[in-house]
Amino acid sequence: MSTSAGPSSAPPEAPAAAKRRVPEWVVRAAQLFALSGIAVAQPIFDLLGNNAAFFVAHDASTGQILMLTFVLLLVPPAIALAVVQVISAIKPAAGRVAMQVAVGVLAAMIITPPLDRALGFSTVVFLLVAAVIAIGAALLYGRFAPVRTFTTFLSFAPVLFAIVFVFFSQVGDLIFADEAEAFSRVSGLRTPVVVLVLDELTLGSILDENGHIDEQRFPGLAQLAAHSTWYRDAGSPSSATTLAVPALLSGTLPEPDSLPTSSDHPRNLFTLLGRTHQLHVDELVTDLCPESLCGESATAATSGLGMRQLFKDAGIVYLHQLLPDGLADSWLPVLGERWASFDEDPAADLEDAGRGGRPIGEDEPGESGADQRARLDTFLAGIQPQAGGQPPLHFLHVLLPHVPYTYLPDGQRYANPVLPLGVDSDTGLWADDDYLSTLGRQQYMLQTEFVDRQITRLLDRLRETGLWDDALVVVTADHGVNFTPGGHLRGKPVDDESRDDIMPVPLFIKYPGQERGRVDDRVAQTTDVLPTIADALGIDLPDDWRSDGRSLLDEPDGHRRYVFVDERSGDRTEFDELDPERAAGEFRAVLGDPGQAHDLYRIAPHGDLVGRPASDLPTGPPIAGAVQLRDPTAYDAVDPAGLILPVRFSAVLDGIAPGQWVAISLNGVIGGVGRVADVAGEPSLVVMLDPSLLRAGRNDLAYYVVDGEQLRPIG
Questions:
Q1: Domain-located, residue 331
Q2: Contacts of 454 (CB under 8 A, 6+ apart)
Q3: Summary mean pLDDT of the chain
Q4: Phi, psi of 687 (to 5 degrees)
Q5: Are strands 562-565 and 572-575 parallel, antiparallel or unpaired?
């Protein structure tokens, strides 16, 4: 029996090209990985890679930095891919449209922000340009295969961005840094050392008309000066905290490319005394104390932030880069001069606390600024009597009187934005409005008086514990602050106009056994602190401990000049002299005389009205207008003994033009005066009211335009 071969039942063999075809989802994944890496990961890598102090301020570990890197690379494209694939599973045609939309949005995120930075779009124009780019990119992607192929080939780019970020940026210096070691040539020291570094305290603000410490406003600092050596002509070499504090602790002039870490500054105060002293160190945005000496977190101010805060802050920084100024200002927290916890809103936090009615001193963790007082309390509580063993080194860098300005002299507080009214959140420049500058000076001085009371607490604590007589005590600041209308808050660039506000800082050193104060008028810089401490303790520093500073116990050099280092370029500018008394005169010109009742509330030119009953003042005909409080209930139920007081009066005015002066009567007495300013296109009035005029319960307000010698009621 014979059989014949029939048609085969097996399907025909698929072409080889079809076998090798890459699944569509893989191609989409590669394309979304490429575009997301360029749109999201690369801007963050570029910004933070050049500002690795961000990670220092967050006390971020290597694992956390790498985790952030992988999340930025993988999570955004994974989310986009998941959405596209889910839609494709439901309806393939809709999935292709969804992919085009994703490509268009990512393309707009890549192209629009740099165009905005170059051309300065308004919000509406920004959104229109972004829409045009998104639609155009989506159409090109959908219609032209070469565009899709090119997008796929870009998938290697995010990997290169990550490699550069981890290995070839400042971040690599953090990840692969060697830890500094303690100085091994010192032993047998018995002198306690206490160092307090304040932030943004300009010397001129604490001087009287004779160039002495203003003892009426600042009795704590005056007491310190009376028992220590005050280096009255001391200057800071930088207006950037991340450069100024390492310079102070290491004795070396700043180098802009260096990080505020022990690996970049291995020879510093903490490694000098690490084998001879018990270290009690609380750094703020620096990390100069090695883990081997200070444990896992010497940066105590940020040691609990963790990954969540790291991601939140990175996201806020990214959105500031992505969005136009109009949307960023409306939707996002102000970055200001901060490195971490950008989502803290001091005004909102304090308003919430005020409604809670907590008594004075009961700050809660997480409130903006509250951690500064808590850190001061912890610092003071840690100063204990010396009972044998190694002597202590107590170090604190506290963010006071630095912005935000929220403290009154007695420790009560008020709601105030991160940056003073009139300071541009993007540029750091003051508006060209002398009243807003005066308001900033006033708020700064109120906070500085609070700082002065903490100095008194420090001196009292050192005496209570028996450390004062034998201790070496240093109180100084990293740099000053500028209030010149039109100028930069940090005086950038520091020049002949701004140097007297930024460079002169207080520098007090109480030497062991010193009983009487003296003033030393030599040219000094904060880089002199470390060599002076070493000299006072009898430590002979070897040659490899290079220092730009000099011991202030040596004979003064009559030819020395001040050096200031630009934080970006590294350029060094030398000055023959500083004139903090010029800056002091600017404070005196706009604030009331020390010792006067209501002195800090009597701002020029109508400060003489403050404290006087409104009924005793000449009045003229009313002016048609209205005053709308930004918080209509702020004065309905006031507790004068509470933590938060409504002393920052803020309102929008109708019928009263910018430039006019307005006096505010608080319970029948003029509590403050201010000038109407144009804020975001609205005639606005912000005035500091004297808290001594507040009463329990409801407070009555009345408003008057100052018209020559008359007060004209508004309404």
A1: no
A2: 220, 376, 400
A3: 89
A4: -140, 140
A5: antiparallel
Q: What is the CATH number of the domain that holds 401?
A: 3.40.720.10
DSSP, res 575: E
Element containing residue 475 per DSSP (H, E)? strand 472-477
Question: Peptide bond before 385: cis, by omega within 30 degrees of 0?
Answer: no
Residue-wise pLDDT for 46-97, tens only, equals 989 888 888 888 888 889 999 999 999 999 999 999 999 999 999 999 999 9
What's the domain range around 688?
597-713
Omega prior to 493 cis, within 30 of 0? yes
Q: Is the peptide bond before 246 cis (omega within 30 degrees of 0)?
A: no
Return the amino acid letter for 405: Y
In-domain check, residue 86: yes
Q: Which residues are within 8 A (CB) of 601 and not within 5 positions of it... i.e. 6 or more apart?
A: 442, 592, 607, 610, 611, 671, 672, 688, 689, 690
Q: Which of 175, 201, 228 is the C-terminal boundary of a domain? A: 175
Q: Report d(CA 572, CA 247) in Å as an integer.
A: 14
What is the pTM for the complete model shown? Answer: 0.86
Dihedral angle over CA of 266, 271, 275, 281, nearest 10: -140
pLDDT tens by residue, 462-489: 999 999 999 999 999 999 999 999 999 9
CA dist., res. 298 & res. 280, Å (int)? 8
State the total domains in the chain.
Answer: 3
- The per-residue pLDDT for 357 is 44
Grouping H, G, I as helix, E, B as strand and the rest as coil, residue 509 is strand
Q: How far apart are CA 266 and CA 96, in angstroms?
A: 56
How far apart are alpha carbons 547 and 252 in whole angstroms?
5
The verdict on residue 62 lying in a domain is yes
Q: Is the pLDDT of residue 361 over 50?
A: no
pLDDT at 363 over 90: no
Of the residues 144, 175, 206, which one is the last residue of a structural domain?
175
CA atoms within 13 A on the CB side of 547: 26
Q: Within this chain, do residues 45 and 106 fall inside the same structural domain, yes or no?
A: yes
State which amino acid sits at residue 123.
Answer: T
User: Is residue 333 a part of any domain in this protein?
Assistant: no
